[in-house]
UniProtKB/TrEMBL annotation, chain A:
Name of the protein described by the UniProt record: Xanthine dehydrogenase family protein
UniProt organism field: Nocardioides deserti
Region (Disordered): 1-28, 798-834
Keyword annotations: Molybdenum, Oxidoreductase
PANTHER family xref list: ALDEHYDE OXIDASE 1-RELATED (PTHR11908:SF132), XANTHINE DEHYDROGENASE (PTHR11908)
Domain Aldehyde oxidase/xanthine dehydrogenase a/b hammerhead: 31-146
From TrEMBL, chain B:
Residue span(s) of domain FAD-binding PCMH-type: 1-177
InterPro entries: CO_DH_flav_C, CO_DH_flav_C_dom_sf, Diverse_Substr_Oxidored, FAD-bd_PCMH, FAD-bd_PCMH-like_sf, FAD-bd_PCMH_sub1, FAD-bd_PCMH_sub2, Mopterin_DH_FAD-bd
Region Disordered: start-end pairs: 236-263
Protein name as catalogued: Xanthine dehydrogenase family protein subunit M
Keywords: FAD, Flavoprotein, Oxidoreductase
Pfam family, one: FAD_binding_5
Species of origin: Nocardioides deserti
Length: 834, 286
């Protein structure tokens, strides 16, 4: 076949970017007839069950595995001692200071456990059920040690989480605008506000501990029977996992193949290298057989990493009109028992965001990371930025109340105006584009802001038992992680580039390989749309491959809203290289000069003639290689690696109306409007899925979710009966719209949207709750704003910051004897007084 | 999660089930809808050697009219009870309580008898059963006996059903023409109540002639709010008429403290929810 042979004209596809395409991957994912890790069955495969410590902090005095080893079909039972030489170690990729205290994190503990849920022994059996039965028979004796549980108390070093380290204080990290030369000295600003009759607000907020609660529990399968050791894992980061395994187990990187098959959600919770992965690798090598481990939901809740968990001390200085003159942020961040992969870096990711969309002249940020005897923490949707956004957006509402103006008015006085972009902030970032005025105006209009304010006034005046509050959050975030150079300056252990390959197949179909690792986002669809447009081929002809180091050898995976804005840009660059190569061939075949060719709709045409050739025809011609320009390699395939020069700054205005039943503390959301500027949109349907899901996740932090430990360090919200995840029955229909200022940091003009909803919504909701009862003298309610906390705030006027009782209701069995079940004795004593 | 091993039997008559129970004693566990038992087994909080499934005993399913009472078979699923016209007409309080019990899937599996036998004080059926004066029909090796609701609920997860007995049906005395409402207070939709109030009232000429009020999760068993019931009699069915009576809802109760609320908050909730339940039952609002 030659290029001139008649061939049905490739239908010029309409523009794919911007189309509401349904996600091509959904049928598989939703029906479950697909490659979830736990669906993988290999010949002769063995199964693992973990024996976990029930104590938060204890010395292991003995482990007796005799009885377990005799249990039916048990192949082996191993302890940390047995694996000491082969198990490797879990790494912290981001030591935030050179002197950070980092406890050694072994996959299986050897002589001491540092949180309840830590693995102390592993059973290998022919079936998962037999492994579980035998795990019950492993007899471990412990000497309980005092546990460091409360974050503030742990920061005083009264009880040590790791006695050998001598302190719980892991790292102290500071950014100061005065020192960095990006702004003034914050203490001067505060002193000046105090001395000149300005405003100084001091607040302390709690970011409760959260559990990522992805839909698919973590699972790992390891097959040691090939030349390469193959690891399937439900992870967001197959490439980083491969690197870390090689770096710590001594297995050469070239002998490792890591596959993240279909992965059922992560939210940061699978941005991790886990003890369970290391253990599965170690036991596959030990037994020489394929081995599988799939966690139970209970194990996932206690032992997969948690998120947030900070105390935030904030001092804001402003003049009488509410123009902010300085912001000082002092954080305590709970690392849990170990410094995990990104660990202490999470609060540092927030360091650049407390100044948000505002023009603050002076800024100081300091975080103390603290070790405790609880589950280790790491990234959770937004990672650092929700914490920052919450603090500043709560504070701006407080400032508005202090000055006596509308919360939107106070924001407008301080925000960067659209004509001031690009703008270098007090934290040293250059915001490339944005228009806060436009997003806010649109949101106000959709919300019916003035009418709702009028209703609020009426309810206040009539003393209605149901009060109405309006909450505002005008957020921005830095996403698209990340410029490698910046990561280097922050001492992160890797870069932030992304890689892509585009392969033209002989039949004109296209294979696209990305180093991003989708786990529910819809990359297959969105990336197909981009490449279809770029190459002018039908959407259906593009196949997106990812998540297997043998197929996609280079990549830095998916987190931090990076896949489109970094990975998408790599795709664009690789596609453009394909087009460049194809153009040379086209010129040759059409006997024209390349300069006289136009490329559109997948066809090269000679300007001013009707002569042309489709890119698919060129692909076939290159495959045959019969007639190519002299010296040309017979390949159109192209790679690109894109390293961003800047972060990416989506922003938006979120408005929430909340009814508060003052008799019971019950909350009812009336309306939620958000107008996000996420630059150009590739697929509006996917965007709206990300926004809706993101909103619910942020609202859940405000209202429902909290990981609660009792006094002995047992997670009492250890099942979904007590760790409250909302369902669609708990949420309203959100009103979502967009304004658009294209990003200037990538050629598609896109901005990240994966975390936006979660980052923005939490403060909007809490601001609405506080706004509803502010006239009663209330200035804060601790998250999650449970009906009880709201009711107590109203009773005590002003101090709705009660911690939750550390006890779960035992719906299934009264006689479990477990710590932290319902406390009925307290009720009995109180009852007797009546 | 994987339960420990157990043997399984699915008899087709109550007699066979009783015989199996007698044989295995306290090593056996009855399985109804499994919505409480299976979590217990899967979390390995209990490991019976024998599970006796009542699912094949058709005589235990269904709702029938028996003169002055509506009789609900122990194995009748929540979804069936919730949509049954006889229950709706003569024991509306039960229909209202079932409406928001757990979620759709659980309502299609969980059973009326299973929920009551499980005797979770946060369960939604105990308070309505108590308020309506339900009679529990229990069959054992020695025959059948009937236990009134006040004696059926003994303690947390403990009822009058003996180890060798089976709850076969529940008789709900007819409250035809009574107004009924179940006011359930939750943080998320598909949750056991923090507190709930079951109220049935007979209104005569604008004032309350008779009232039955039961409280959920205000003690180790469902609680009957006698003081409220008495104080309501003769009151107008208006917010002012009901307020003082409802304020007595927490008298003598012994609520738990847990993640969702301390005991004092629950006591407060009981008074507010009682007022709302009674008013809604009486067809008034406020
Ligand atoms: C996620 C979730 C949410 C829930 N939410 C609610 C809620 O909001 N409100 C609510 O009220 N309930 C709720 N439930 C519980 C639900 O109502 C169960 O269906 C009920 O508690 C048990 O009924 P079952 O038929 O499933 O009984 P099973 O689980 O089969 O049995 C429960 C217990 O009763 C015993 N038993 C069962 N039948 C008999 C009998 N005939 N004679 C003697 N003993 C018997 C069993 O041996 C077992 O000990 C929830 C359950 C779940 C899993």
């Amino acid at each position: 076949m030659t290029a001139t042979e008649a061939r049905p004209e490739a239908e010029a596809p309409e523009r794919e970017i911007g189309r509401e395409r349904r996600r091509k991957e959904d049928q598989r994912l939703i029906t479950g007839r697909t490659r979830w890790t736990d669906n993988i069955q290999l010949p002769g495969m063995l199964h693992l069950a973990m024996v976990r410590s029930p104590f938060a902090h204890a010395r292991i005095t003995s482990i007796d595995t005799t009885e377990a080893k005799q249990s039916p079909n048990v192949v082996d039972v191993v302890t940390g001692q047995d694996l000491a030489e082969t198990q490797g170690v879990l790494i912290n990729a981001w030591p935030i200071t050179p002197d950070q205290k980092t406890p050694t994190h072994l996959p299986v503990a050897i002589d001491r456990v540092a949180f309840a849920g830590e693995i102390v022994a592993v059973v290998v059996a022919r079936s998962a059920a037999e492994a579980r039965d035998a795990a019950e028979l492993v007899d471990v004796e412990y000497d309980e040690l005092p546990a460091a549980l409360d974050l503030k108390e742990a920061a005083t070093d009264t009880v040590l989480a790791h006695p050998d380290l001598g302190s719980n204080k892991s790292a102290y990290w500071v950014f100061d605008s005065g020192e960095a030369g990006t702004g003034g000295n914050v203490d001067d600003a505060i002193t000046q506000a105090r001395d000149s009759g300005g405003i100084v607000l001091e607040r302390e907020y709690r970011q409760q501990r959260l559990i990522p609660a992805f839909m698919e529990p973590r699972s790992t399968v390891v097959d040691p029977t090939g030349e390469q050791l193959t690891v399937w894992s439900a992870t967001q980061i197959p490439h980083i996992l491969r690197f870390a395994l090689a770096a710590t187990t001594g297995i050469p990187e070239s002998k490792l193949r890591v596959i993240a098959p279909d992965v059922g959600g992560g939210f940061g919770g699978k941005l991790q290298t886990t003890p369970e992965e290391w253990i599965t690798v170690a036991l596959a090598r030990r037994t020489g057989k394929p081995v599988k481990y799939t966690e139970t939901r209970s194990e996932s809740l206690i032992a997969a990493h948690h998120g947030r968990d900070q105390w935030q001390k904030l001092t804001l200085a402003a003049d009488r009109e509410g123009n902010v003159t300085g912001l000082k942020v002092q954080l305590l961040a709970d690392l849990g028992a170990y410094v995990s992969l990104v660990g202490g870096g999470v609060p540092v990711l927030g360091a650049f965001m407390f100044n948000a969309i505002y023009k603050f002249p002076a800024y100081h940020f300091a975080v103390q990371t603290v070790l405790t005897n609880k589950t280790w923490t790491d990234a959770y949707r937004g990672a650092g930025r929700p914490e920052a956004t919450f603090a500043i957006e709560r504070l701006m509402d407080e400032l508005a109340a202090e000055v006596g103006v509308d919360p939107l008015e106070i924001r407008e006085r301080n925000w960067i105006k659209h004509e001031e972009f690009p703008f270098t902030t007090v934290a040293g970032l250059e915001y490339d584009s944005g228009n806060y005025e436009a997003a806010t105006a649109r949101a106000k209009e959709m919300f019916g802001y003035d009418e709702l304010r009028a209703e609020q006034r009426r309810r206040r005046e009539s003393g209605d038992p149901v009060q109405l509050g309006i909450g505002v959050s005008t957020f921005t975030e830095m996403c698209g992680l990340a410029p490698s150079r910046v990561l280097g300056q922050l001492d992160y252990g890797a870069g932030g580039w992304e890689h892509a390959s585009v392969r033209m197949l002989a039949t004109g179909k296209v294979e696209v390989v990305t180093g991003a690792s989708a786990h529910g986002q819809g990359h297959e669809t969105a990336f197909s749309q981009i490449v279809a447009d770029r190459l002018g081929v039908p959407f259906e002809d593009v196949e997106v491959l990812h998540g297997d180091t043998q197929v996609a050898p280079k990549g830095l995976d998916t987190y931090g809203s990076r896949s489109l804005v970094v990975g998408g840009e790599a795709l664009v660059k690789a596609s453009d290289k394909v087009v460049e190569k194809a153009k040379t061939v086209a010129a040759h075949l059409l006997e024209a000069s390349a300069d006289d060719l136009d490329f559109s709709g997948g066809r090269f045409t000679v300007r001013g003639t009707d002569q042309g050739v489709a890119i698919q025809e060129i692909a076939t011609a290159v495959f045959a290689a019969h007639n190519l320009p002299d010296g040309m390699e017979p390949s159109l395939d192209s790679d690109a690696t894109f390293d961003p020069v800047n972060f990416n700054y989506p922003h938006g205005t979120h408005l929430c109306a909340m009814e508060v039943d003052t008799e019971t503390g019950a909350l009812r959301m009336r309306k939620y409007v958000c107008v996000d500027d996420i630059g150009n949109v590739i697929n509006p349907l996917i965007v709206s899925g990300q926004v809706h899901g993101g909103l619910v996740q942020g609202i859940a932090q405000a209202l429902w979710e909290e990981a609660v430990y009792d006094d002995s360090g047992t997670l009492v919200s250890g099942s979904f009966v007590d760790y409250l995840l909302p369902t669609s029955a708990d949420t309203i229909s959100f009103e979502v719209d967009h304004t658009t200022t294209p990003s200037l940091t990538n050629t598609l003009g896109t901005k990240g949207v994966g975390e936006a909803g979660t980052i923005a919504s939490t403060p909007a909701v809490v601001n609405a709750v506080v706004d509803a009862v502010r006239h009663l003298g209330i200035t804060d309610i601790r998250m999650p704003c449970t009906p009880e906390r709201v009711w107590r705030a109203i009773q005590d006027a002003g101090s709705g910051t009660e911690p939750t009782t550390g006890a779960a209701a035992p719906h299934f069995d009264a006689s479990t004897g477990m710590e932290g079940t319902v406390d009925r004795t307290a009720g009995a004593q109180d009852g007797a007084q009546q | 999660m994987i339960p420990a091993q157990f043997d399984y039997l699915a008899p087709s008559t109550v007699e066979e089930a009783l015989a199996a129970l007698a044989q295995h004693g306290d090593e056996a566990k009855i399985l109804a809808g499994g919505q409480s038992l299976l979590p217990v087994l899967r979390m390995r909080l209990n490991a019976p050697e024998m599970v006796i499934d009542l699912g094949k005993i058709t005589s235990l399913r269904g709702v029938r009219d028996d003169g002055d009472a509506i009789v609900v078979g122990a194995m009748t699923q929540h979804s069936v009870v919730g949509s049954d016209p006889l229950v709706a007409e003569h024991a509306a309080l039960v229909s209202k309580a079932v409406e928001h019990l757990a979620d759709v899937q659980i309502r299609h599996r969980g059973t009326f008898g299973g929920a009551l036998a499980h005797a979770d004080p946060a369960g939604d059926l105990g308070a309505p059963a108590l308020a309506l004066g339900a009679q529990f029909v229990i069959q054992g090796p020695g025959g059948t006996r009937t236990v009134p609701a006040e004696e059926f609920f003994v303690d947390l997860f403990e009822t009058a059903i003996g180890e060798d007995e089976i709850l076969t049906e529940v008789r709900l005395p007819k409250h035809t023409g009574w107004g009924a409402h179940y006011e359930k207070f939750v943080r998320v939709a598909h949750q056991w109540p923090i507190v709930a109030v079951a109220a049935a009232v007979r209104v005569d000429g604008g004032s309350i002639a008779e009232a039955r009020v039961g409280l959920t999760n205000m003690g180790n068993t469902p609680v009957r709010a006698h003081a409220v019931e008495q104080a309501l009699v003769g009151q107008p069915a208006t917010p002012d008429g009901v307020r003082d009576a409802a304020a007595r809802a927490a008298e003598g109760t012994n609520p738990p403290s847990d993640l969702n609320g301390d005991a004092d908050y629950r006591r407060h909730l009981a008074t507010v929810l009682t007022r709302r339940a009674v008013l809604t039952a009486a067809g008034a609002t406020g």
